[in-house]
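S1.2 Input.
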Amino acid sequence: MKPRITVLTLGVGDLEKAVAFYRDGLGLPTEGIVGQEFEHGAVAFFDLEGGLRLALWKRGDLAHDTGLPVSPPSPTEFSIGHNVGSREAVDRVMAEVEKAGAVVTVPAHETFWGGYSGYFQDPDGHLWEVVWNPQWTVGEEE
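S1.3 Output.
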């Protein structure tokens, strides 16, 4: 297996609400919900940098496709990192996501390892970290 991730799929409770958050609130590009003509097929894709796609799929449909039961959500199973180029960019993105309806769980702050970060949850409780790491070079765009 090559060290590559091409799609990150998040199970969501309300697909339309989740699409609105990511598209309208965060400004991520999407063609909207596709696959509605298929049972368990409605999904939305968002093109991210580096060829990565974010997919939003109803939790029940994801469970159906995998053959697993729907389990209680657990926001501490993983976090999605959004790296930015400065402390100020962390502050700007955190303000943007809060305005979009995210729940800020940890405001932006200096980290113990010398960076600067904050955490938020999307409408389904998925945990995101907005982080500036002085050891990494990323573009200046948020």
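S1.4 Remarks. The radius of gyration is 16 Å.
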